[in-house]
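RECORD TYPE: protein structure
NAME: Ribokinase
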Amino acid sequence: MTHQPRIRVIGSINLDIVARVETLPRPGETVSGGILAHYPGGKGANQALAARRLGAEVELIGAVGRDDAASQALAILRASGVDLHGVKVLDAMTTGVALIGVDRHGENQIIVAPGANEQVSEATLPVFDQMVDATLCQLELPVATIEHVAATTKGLLCINLAPAQPLPPSILNRADILVVNETESAFYGDMLDKSRSLIIKTLGSRGAVAIQHGREIARAASPKIDPVDTTGAGDTFVGAFMVTFLREGSVAKALTYACAAGAAATLTAGAQTSMPTPEQVLALLAQS
Ligand code: RIB
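PREDICTED:
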């Protein structure tokens, strides 16, 4: 593919309210001394930005409330040239919010209050009259909405099965590419093993593997880094994988590039604030 890949992302938009702490609380425990920050987030918005930053033309379809959180949530996407015409502003709803704790190793805990994301439905989705190279979804919108997208979208469909939840087989059967982490892979188990889709499984700091018809077809290691904040690393991986796969047509090359992009995204705090440029990804690849 010689032109910039065109990717349509149908997904969530959140404002991330983040507290950095030494250690994350266990159930029933209170930890103090947190340092608070607000960052744009949401798996859909993050993946849209990652793909845009790495060279794709991207449109984002979703919803926010009519509130201050919406302007914060959309600021980096807007400044980066993601097409936001498909983002509805809903009067009676609040923008989605994620409450995130990040510990000294960069590990996180996330609680999402979806707000307007819950209202994205067949009724609010625009008519998809423009052709794109791929459509990308996650599972932070209602399952019925993803089911509708799977049934009506033409062309390449990639679904990041995050966060894991029960799904009708029609969604899994329609997807050309399914991206999971190890927890999600264990959750779907057999359904993935039997799937006809290309399965991309991320392995955290160990890299990622591609599986087709139950057979490993490619594997990549992650560059060794000292993570500051892992929030959004998986989203960066997905965006980077799609851009490279569409551009190069090679699963192996896309895995290698996406592992480096995901690692680069852990070097700074925040989800969207940490998304790398192509130069940063290449620099990390050159070191490894
Ligand atoms: O994947 C990270 C994202 O998950 C955060 O930005 C948060 O908003 C939640 O959706």
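COMMENT: The radius of gyration is 18 Å.
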